[in-house]
Amino acid sequence: MKSVTYFLAFAARLDKIGVRMLRIAVSVILIWIGALKFVPYEAEGITPFVANSPFMRFFYQHPDEYGQHRNKEGEVHPANIAWHEANNTYGYAYGLGILLVAMGVLLLLDRAHPLFGTAGALLTIIMGVGTLSFLVTTPETWVPDLGGAHHGFPYLSAAGRLVLKDLIMLAGAVVLLADSAKAALLRLRNR
Fold it and tell me: What share of the chain is helix, strand, coil (3-state, %, to 5)?
């Protein structure tokens, strides 16, 4: 029983390192995915989400035509690339990439000042809610009816499974927001 107590006491002290690890993990994901937004396959890959979102589709010139111009990851079709250039697919992705990288950097700058971490966490929460909205707005998040018995809700497609993972990002961002806000309040009180 004593070894269980020691283990539990050790595990109970992991919260501080756990929050630091979470901050680094969320930052790495944001910076990495943000940097990938400058690569054509990633920019093209988010097209169904943006084109179907009532909050984002205005960024594209021709959101209803995306289905005719989709490339598989790594495929190069000059006509589709030209369409994506005219559609502002790449321009939107570049802006999103800059925002994601900035969010990751803000989370890491929490050590310099917790208000940076607070801002990064708040933006990550907004991003998580926005991304999860794709489950409602994007038909490609559900398995299509191609004759099988398993389609539509609750059968997530690869795109849907990718989106659902943002629940973890959202929950992590809430923990990071609380951590940064506590540190910011402590700094304000100690002035």
Answer: 75, 0, 25
154: cis peptide before it, omega within 30°?
A: yes
Alpha carbon dihedral 139, 140, 142, 148, in 10-degree steps, equals 110
**pTM, whole model, 2 decimals?**
0.91
Tokens found for residue 85? 């250039």
Question: Does position 156 have pLDDT exceeding 90, yes or no?
Answer: yes
Task: Give the pLDDT score at 1.
Answer: 82
Name the 3-class secondary structure at 154: coil
H or E stretch covering 54: none
How far is residue 20 from each of residues 14, 117, 125, measured CA to CA in Å? 10, 12, 18
Outline where 109-165 has alpha helix (H): 114-132, 134-137, 158-164
The 10s digit of each residue's pLDDT in 58-101 is 999 999 999 999 988 888 899 999 999 999 999 999 999 999 99
Query: Rounded to an integer, what distance in angstroms lies between the CA atom of residue 183 and that of residue 51?
Result: 39
CA distances to 36, 94, 148, 186 from 52, in Å: 21, 19, 25, 43
